[in-house]
From TrEMBL:
It comes from the Eukaryota. Keywords: Heme, Iron, Metal-binding, Monooxygenase, Oxidoreductase. Belongs to the cytochrome P450 family. This is Cytochrome P450. Heme binds at C482. Its cofactor is heme.
Length: 564
C-alpha cells in the first residue's frame, strides 16, 4: 500500500535525478574540449582541415603531428562550428570507439553523400535499427566461419589474375601501372560480384567493373567535410542552376550512377532467380531465408520511421539485402585493390624481403621449379615469414588510414576533456600503426617485428603488447568495424603468397632505368576519398622460372563448385 510519504518521495526523487543530470551537464560543459588548433572565429579550423588538399602532407600524418604539438593523443578541431575529435592512439580509440560504443557508433550525416544517392549504403547510415538490420544480414554471410565457402572462387580469381599477369609479361617486360591496376580491379570485383550476386560471366563482370569505376569519383562524398554542404546543410536547397552550385550538378550526375550501382546487378540477380539460372551467393541465400522478421528485442525500438509494420517486413527485407549487396559491391571493389597494389609496390622496393619469403616458400612447399601447385590457404600456418610480410604491409600502408568517421550521440568526458554530443570522431589508424610505443622504429618496413610477437595464427590477438596485430586497427573500430575484413584478408593474402611463389617483382623508375635508392615514402597518392592508392608506378613482374611461368598460366586448375 502506498502511503503519503511514498507518494511524496517519488516526485522528490525525480526532481533530485533531474537536478543531478543538470549539474552533471553543467560540470561537463565547464570542462574544456581536447586541445587542438584554435583557428579563426566562425570558420574555426577550416584551413587546418583543408591543408592536405594543398598537397603539403597527408591528412593522417598532419593529425599525428598536431597531436605531438598539443601533447595529446586526442585532438579537437572546430570546423565552422562542427566538432571533430581525432583519436591518435590505440588507448583512446579503444576506450571511446570500443568500450563506449553505445555513444560512438553512429555516423555524421553525410549530406553530399545523401544528395548523391548513397543513402542505401549502410556504411554511411546512422546507428539505428535500420542500420542494425543491414549489419546483421551482412555479418551472417561474411563472418569468419562463412568465408571458407568462398575460397574456391577466391582461388579461381587468383588463377585468373596470375594468368593475366603472365600474358602482360609475355608481351612487354615492363608492367605499366594502368595494366596492373586493371588486372587487380578485375580480380577484386570478380570476387565481390560472385560472392554477392553469383555473377561469373566475363562480359557481365567487365560491365560491372566499369560501372563501379565510373562511380568511384563520388566516393569523395564519404569523407565528411569535402563539400561545404556538409557544414551548411541548408545549401541542399540551392537549385542546380544557381551560380556556384557545382556540387548540385555533380550530385545529380552521381545519383544516376549510384542508383545503377545498387539496382543493375540486383535486377540481374532477380532475373536469374526467375529463370532458374541463379548461382548460390549472398543474394540468393538471403532471399531464400527472408529471415529478417522482427524479434521481440527489435520491437522495443520505435520502427514507425521505417514506415513498416511487422507484416510488410518481407519487402523491407529485400531492400535490406539489395542494399547490403550494393554496399559489398562498392566497399569491396576499391579497398582490396588498394592493398594488392600497395603489396606489389612494396615487394618491388624490397628484393631482400622477397628473397627471404621465397626461401621460406621453397623450403616449406618445395621450389616452384619442381612444384606443380600454388600455395593455398591450408599452407598459411606454415609460412610465418610470409605472414609477417603481410602484416607489415597492413601496418605500414593501411588502405583506409582514417577509416570512416564515427559520430557521438551523447555528451561524454574523456581524460578530463568534454566531447559534446554530435561530434565527428575520427580513429587515426595510420597514427596508431605508426606509434613508436607500439611499433618501435615505425617508419622502417620490417616484417621481422611480427616474427617475435605473433607466435600463432588463430590465437586471440593480444592488444598493447609490442607490435600488436595490425588487423586490430586497419579495419576500424567497435560496432562499425569492417564486417568483411576476413574476406579481404584471405583474398589479399592469397594474391601476395602466389605472387611471391611465382614471380620476382622489380622496381622500374619512370625513365625505365634501375632506381638509384630504396626510398619508398611517400608511396600513396593523395586522394580525397577514404581509401588510398599508390602513386602510379612501373614494375617488372617476371616469372621466377619456366615452371613458375607454367604455374601462372595454369593456376589452381580447380573449377568452382557452383551450387545451383
Ligand atoms: C583491405 C581491405 C579493406 C579495408 C582496409 C577495409 C577497411 C574498413 C574500415 C576502416 C571501415 C570503417 C570501420 C569503422 O567505421 O570503424 C570499413 C567499413 C566497412 N567495410 Fe571494409 N575494408 C576492406 C574491405 C572490405 C570489403 C572487401 C568489403 C565488402 C565485401 C567491405 C565492407 C565494409 C562495410 C560494409 C563497412 C561498413 C560497416 C558499417 O558501417 O557498419 N570492406 N572497412
Amino acid at each position: 500500500m502506498l502511503n503519503t510519504v511514498h507518494l511524496l518521495a517519488i516526485p522528490g526523487l525525480l526532481i533530485v535525478y533531474d537536478l543531478w543530470k543538470y549539474l552533471l551537464r553543467r560540470h561537463r560543459q565547464a570542462l574544456s574540449y581536447p586541445p587542438g588548433p584554435k583557428g579563426l572565429p566562425i570558420i574555426g579550423s577550416f584551413f587546418d582541415a583543408l591543408t592536405p588538399r594543398t598537397g603539403l602532407e597527408t591528412q593522417w600524418a598532419i593529425f599525428r603531428d598536431m597531436g605531438h604539438i598539443y601533447h595529446s593523443d586526442v585532438l579537437h578541431i572546430d570546423v565552422l562550428g562542427d566538432h571533430t575529435v581525432v583519436l591518435n592512439s590505440a588507448k583512446a580509440a579503444e576506450e571511446l570507439l570500443e568500450r563506449r560504443s553505445g555513444i560512438y557508433s553512429s555516423r555524421p550525416t553525410m549530406y553530399m553523400a545523401n544528395e548523391s544517392g548513397w543513402g542505401w549504403n549502410f556504411a554511411t547510415m546512422p546507428y539505428t535499427l535500420w542500420w542494425r538490420l543491414h549489419r546483421r544480414t551482412f555479418h551472417q554471410h561474411f563472418r569468419s566461419e562463412a568465408i571458407a565457402t568462398y575460397h574456391p572462387f577466391i582461388r579461381q580469381a587468383t588463377s585468373r589474375l596470375l594468368r593475366s599477369l603472365s600474358c602482360i609479361q609475355s608481351t612487354t617486360m615492363v608492367t605499366q601501372y594502368d595494366d596492373l591496376q586493371a588486372v587487380v580491379r578485375q580480380h577484386a570485383a570478380s570476387i565481390i560480384l560472385y560472392t554477392t550476386y553469383g555473377i561469373t560471366e566475363q562480359e557481365d563482370m567487365e560491365a560491372f567493373v566499369k560501372l563501379v569505376n565510373n562511380a568511384a569519383e563520388s566516393l569523395v562524398t564519404f569523407s565528411h567535410g569535402n563539400f561545404l554542404v556538409d557544414y551548411f546543410p541548408l545549401l541542399r536547397y540551392v537549385p542546380a542552376w544557381f551560380p556556384g552550385a557545382h556540387f548540385k550538378r555533380k550530385a545529380t550526375r552521381w545519383s544516376q550512377l549510384t542508383s545503377e550501382l545498387v539496382n543493375k546487378p540486383w535486377n540481374q540477380l532477380r532475373a536469374s532467380i526467375s529463370s532458374g539460372t541463379a548461382i548460390s551467393c549472398f543474394g540468393t541465400k538471403c532471399l531464400q531465408k527472408l529471415d529478417l522478421t522482427f524479434n521481440a528485442a527489435d520491437a522495443t525500438e520505435d520502427t514507425s520511421y521505417l514506415g513498416m509494420s511487422k507484416t510488410d517486413s518481407d519487402t523491407k527485407t529485400e531492400e535490406i539485402v539489395r542494399n547490403c549487396a550494393g554496399t559489398a559491391y562498392v566497399a569491396g571493389s576499391d579497398t582490396s585493390v588498394s592493398l594488392t597494389l600497395i603489396s606489389v609496390l612494396v615487394l618491388s622496393h624490397h628484393p631482400e624481403i622477397q628473397a627471404k619469403a621465397q626461401e621460406e616458400l621453397d623450403r616449406v612447399l618445395g621450389s616452384t621449379a619442381n612444384s606443380s601447385q600454388l600455395p593455398d590457404f591450408s599452407d598459411r600456418g606454415s609460412l610465418p615469414y610470409v605472414e609477417a610480410v603481410f602484416k607489415e604491409i597492413l601496418r605500414m600502408y593501411p588502405s583506409a588510414p582514417l577509416g570512416v568517421p564515427h559520430y557521438s550521440v551523447a555528451d561524454d568526458v574523456y581524460d578530463g576533456y568534454f566531447i559534446p554530443k554530435g561530434t565527428t570522431v575520427v580513429g587515426n589508424a595510420w597514427a596508431i600503426l605508426h606509434d613508436e610505443n607500439l611499433y618501435p622504429d615505425p617508419l622502417t618496413f620490417n616484417p621481422d617485428r611480427f616474427l617475435r610477437t605473433e607466435p600463432q595464427r588463430g590465437a586471440p590477438p593480444a592488444k598493447h603488447s609490442l607490435n600488436p596485430d595490425p588487423e586490430l586497427y586497419a579495419f576500424g573500430f567497435g560496432r562499425r568495424i569492417c564486417p568483411a575484413r576476413h574476406l579481404a584478408l584471405d583474398t589479399s593474402w592469397l594474391v601476395l603468397v602466389c605472387l611471391l611463389a611465382t614471380c620476382n617483382i622489380t622496381r622500374i623508375s619512370s625513365d625505365n632505368t634501375e632506381p638509384k635508392s630504396n626510398e619508398i615514402d611517400p608511396i600513396v597518392d593523395l586522394v580525397d576519398g577514404p581509401v588510398v592508392h599508390p602513386k602510379p608506378f612501373k614494375s617488372c613482374i617476371t616469372p621466377r622460372s619456366a615452371s613458375a611461368f607454367e604455374l601462372m598460366k595454369s593456376g589452381y586448375e580447380v573449377g568452382v563448385e557452383v551450387e545451383a
